[in-house]
Design a protein that fits this description.
Number of domains: 2
CATH topology of the largest domain: Umud Fragment, subunit A
Radius of gyration: 29 Å
Strand order of the largest sheet: 1-2-11-3-4-9-10
Oligomer: single chain
Helix content: 25-40%
CATH class of the largest domain: Mainly Beta
């Protein structure tokens, strides 16, 4: 048998082997292809819906956590929810657009009262004004003595630590600032 015939025979056997391989494994290849497509779709769904949020100002915000996951499809805001929102006008501690996470303690229509360094929502004591934080931002405690009602489309939000820079100092968080509901994961 000549070299040309041997090469042709080897090619023919290789083609037959490849064809037989695909015939015998076609079902597995199709299943693998479907699995890859489904994995891609699920990955896109998760990437669009969920975001990992790392609180770089955790000492200041002090919800007791550093890492959150936000669900962009869940913007349901109610009492006790932890919400992530974009800072607006919160200098010097947060630049505009900086993501912040706080607990909702006041909803539209609630009465907020700050008196003698104490903060009340609908007559219930919810926290105090931090003298050390006021010194840090250069404000006088008397500036915060006030009463008001939470406006429609706004929320009164606080961290769980008395030193948290939150609605006690800068006022309301508005619906358009809310990124999503946040869930602490660490």
């Amino acid at each position: 048998m000549s070299l040309k015939m041997k090469v042709a025979d080897a090619r023919s056997r290789m083609r037959k082997t490849v064809v037989m391989y695909f015939k015998n494994n076609a079902r597995w290849l199709v299943l693998f292809s479907y699995a890859m497509v489904v994995t891609g779709i699920v990955s896109i769904y998760i990437a669009q819906r969920y975001t990992i949020f790392i609180d770089q100002q955790w000492v200041v915000t002090s919800t007791g956590h550093k890492i959150y996951i936000t669900d962009s499809w869940d913007k349901n805001v109610s009492y006790g929810n932890l919400v992530a929102f974009r800072a607006k006008g919160l200098e010097p501690l947060f630049e505009n657009g900086f993501p912040v996470a706080k607990y909702v303690v006041g909803m539209p229509g609630d009465k907020i009262k700050v008196e003698n360094g104490n903060v009340y929502v609908n007559g219930k004591h919810v926290g105090v004004i931090s003298e050390s934080l006021l010194k840090k931002i250069g404000k006088d405690p008397k500036e915060y003595e006030k009463q008001y009602v939470v406006k429609e489309g706004a929320y009164f939000c606080m961290g769980s630590n008395p030193r948290s820079y939150d609605s006690r100092y800068w006022g309301m968080v508005y619906e358009q600032q809310v990124i999503a509901r946040a869930y602490a994961i660490y």
